[in-house]
Structure formats: C-alpha cells, structure tokens
Amino acid sequence: MAPIWVLFWLFWGGINSEAIREAVNFRQGQLGQGVLTSNQLLIEEALTHGADLNARVPLTPVLIQFAARRSTRVAHYFAEETRATPLIIAAAIGDAALCDQLVRQGANRYLTSAWGWIAAQYAARCGYPELARSLFDSDPLSAHYRIKIGIAPQTIVLYKDGLVVVSGKISTGRKGHDTPPGYYLVTDKERTRKSSLYKVPMPYFLRLSFSEYGIHQGYNPGRPASHGCIRVGKETVAKALFEATPIGTLVTIN
Fold it and tell me: What is the DSSP secondary structure assignment for residue 123, as one 8-state letter?
C-alpha cells in the first residue's frame, strides 16, 4: 500500500486538476458565448483570463440556445457538434468583422471541428460565401468573377467585371432532386471526377461551397433532369467554364 502522503498528494492533485479543467471550460464557454452574442466585453474578459482562441469551445445546451437565436441552421449544425473553435462559431453566424478580428489576434483558419470542417466550410454552408472566400485559400482573381445560374431559363453565365466570359444551357435538378437556390462559391475544381454515388463521370467539376453539388459536363435533355448538380451539355462550354473560373468565385442560383 502506498504511503498516506502519496495518497493525499494524488487526491489533492486530482482535485486541483479537476478545478483547472472546470476553469478552462468556463473561460472557453464564456468566449463562445461572447462570440455567439457579438459581445466584445465578454470576449476580452475571457481572453484576459486565459481563454484560448485556438482551443475548442464546449458546445453546451446553453450555447446551443444562443446559437438558435442567431440562426436555426447554425443551431442545426452545432446540435450534433461537440466542440468548435471561436473562429468557427463566428464564421457560422456570418460575423465577418469578428472573424477578421479573431484572425488578426491569432486564430487559426484551418483548425477543424469534430465534423472535420474548417471555418470557411461553416461560413459557406450557413450562407455566407463572401466570408467563406476570405477564410480559405481562394484565388485573389475570384473577386473579379461571378457565376449566375438561372433555374427557370436553364442557363449559366460566367462574368468577369460584369462582362460575359462564358455562357451556355444547362440541366438542373429534377423534381425531388431540386438544385437548391441560393448563394455559393466555387471551393475546388476537378478536371476528371466520377460520382461515388451514381458511378457516372462528371468532368470539369466545379464544387459549390464544399458541398456535394457542383457544375460539370453532363447529359442535357433541355429540361431539369439531374440529381441536383448543374449539368453543362456542351463539352466546349464546360471546359471553358472550368478553365476560366478561379477558386473562390461567387455563384448565384435562382
């Protein structure tokens, strides 16, 4: 049996360790609450007392309630999340000024949540493509480009500084697999890609907002017929779009 002083030391050390963990979690939670409520005083207080910009915030039920007040979509993502960095939280609620502040103070843009997503992915998924563009390695030239996709006319147009660069006819998602309207950005490009679900080629693939949806060459019967992606029927148009579109280009679908 260990000497009584050793047992006492282990017991007391365990209490101190637990107290330290609770204090750390409290300050991280305080920082998370400050970010979710855009409360600068709370953020500064947490950081002054040891909160870490690059440590995960325990997303307690209380913090999820704060998230729900900002956005049901944010609350949905965070409800199944366990920990997220302060920058990820700020990105999810679309607070561009706070994101910029946190990055300047040393927040790492590429730390991941428990889902494996970085801050830019949360910004993109929560409907803030311009913020997402600033939070990952987008091409600076993307600021000059924009893609507009029309669901009713089944058209796609790539603009550079307001001038048409490429245009063509498309096929969007059929009923039950509708292409979601909204605001996106091009987050990666694959010249040759094959669908893991449908086992069909999707050449000249431009991924939208880190999602499963994208723009690619494919069969165009002259009407909505895809599983949600934007099919470009003509290879020349699909190739031209692929080659001319920089990573980070904003996309509007309506």
Answer: H
* Of residues 70, 110, 58, 64, the one with CA closest to residue 88: 110
Give pLDDT < 70 ranges for the chain: 1-20, 196-199
Under CATH, which architecture does the 4-128 domain have? Answer: Alpha Horseshoe (1.25)
- Strand-pairing partners, residue 252, are 148, 183
| DSSP codes, 28-86 | HHHHHHHHHTT-HHHHHHHHHTT--TTSPEE--HHHHHHHHHH-HHHHHHHHT--EE-H
Helix axes of 72-79 and 61-70: crossing angle, nearest 10 degrees? 150
d(C-alpha 200, C-alpha 187), whole Å? 21
Structure token pair of residue 92: 């999810």
- Give the model's pLDDT for residue 70: 84
DSSP 226: B
Chosen CATH of 140-253 out of 3.30.70.580, 2.40.440.10, 3.10.129.10, 2.60.120.40: 2.40.440.10
Say if CB 210 and CB 187 are below 8 A apart. Answer: yes
Q: How far apart are CA 186 and CA 202, in angstroms?
A: 16
In terms of C-beta density within 10 A (0-12 exposed, 13-18 middle, 19 or more buried), how is residue 161 classed? exposed
pLDDT at 6: 47
